[in-house]
Each structure stands twice: as structure tokens, then as C-alpha cells.
Amino acid sequence: MIKYNLECSCGETFESWFQNSSEYEKLLKKNLINCYVCGSSKTVKKSIMAPSVATSKTSTTQKDTEQKKEFFKNVKSKIRELNDYVAKNADYVGDKFVSEVRSIHYDKKQKRNIYGNATLEETKELQEEGIDVATIPWVPKENA
Ligand SMILES: [Zn+2]
């Protein structure tokens, strides 16, 4: 079995299971893959995962709402995994992040991984200075 993310031109994205990729091609050719929202079979295509997880559509059905909740719960738990990884492999410097990262970079302090708070603007400045920084999403612990 193979799972594909499908996308309809009406803007809906959904997942569907197929025996294999040729099964998918076969069904697609026969117009047997339907969008569950608008019912169209002509405009459904395999989609590349969207970089954004937010959806502007309002949920209409209970199932929809629950799927969305489940989805965001999974996203959160993945982000938390990422957060845990960072916490294990870097030192937390909180609001001192920007000055710390600069002093590591310019004062040739011992290289170490740090993480902390910075605004988007500060992050951009650091990147322009040639410093390796990345913004990652962070899930507050109390949201667990
Ligand atoms: Zn559709």
C-alpha cells in the first residue's frame, strides 16, 4: 500500500491509499479518483507537501474538525521532538541569544550550539552577517 497526498483544484488536499503507484495511475486515467469536497475527478493530482500547515478553510463537519485537530496534534508532537533534540544538543541562552551568538562568531569563542529567543529581524541581521542561525517553531511545554 502506498499513501499519496492529493490536491484538487478546488483547493482541497487529502490523503488516499493505493495498492501501488501504477494502481494510482490507472485510477487517475479512468477518472476514478474523486475529490471528496467538490466531487471532481478531473482536477485531482498528486501534491507536494505544502510548506505551510495552516488552513484558512473553516471546518464544516465534525469529522473534518477532528481530522484537523488530530493533524495539528501530530504536527505539535513532531515540533516537540525537534525541540527536544535542540534542547539536548544546544545550550539555552534565552534572551541573550543575539549577543551570545555574535560573541561566539566574532570573539572566536569556543564553538558551541546555543538556542534562545530572537526576533525575525534579529535573525535576519545575523544571517546577513554570515552567521548560521535558523528559526524553528517552538511548542510551549504547557501546551502538552
Ligand atoms: Zn475539489
Which percent band covers the strand fraction? 5-15%
Structural class: alpha+beta
- Uncertain spans: 49-53
Strand order of the largest sheet: 2-1-3
- Ligands, ions, cofactors: zinc ion
Note the total helix count. Answer: 4
SSE succession: EEHEHEHEH
Name the average pLDDT: 84
Q: Give the count of structural domains.
A: 2
Globular, elongated, flat, extended or rod-shaped: what is the shape?
elongated
Share of helix, binned? 25-40%
Biggest beta sheet summary: 3 strands, antiparallel
Radius of gyration from the CA trace? 22 Å
Number of strands: 5
C-alpha end-to-end distance: 33 Å
Describe this structure in words.
There is one protein chain. This protein is of the alpha+beta class and 144 residues long. It folds into two domains: 1-49; 76-143, no CATH class. 39% of the residues lie in helices and 15% in strands. The chain has helices spanning 21-29, 62-89, 97-106, 120-128; strands at 2-7, 13-18, 45-46, 91-94, 114-116. The strands form two sheets. It has a three-stranded antiparallel beta sheet with strand order 2-1-3, with helices on one face. Strands 4-5 form a two-stranded parallel sheet. Helix 3 (97-106) links the parallel strand 4 and strand 5 (114-116). The model is unreliable at 49-53 (pLDDT under 50). Zinc ion (ZN) is lined by residues 8, 10, 12, 35, 37-38, 40.
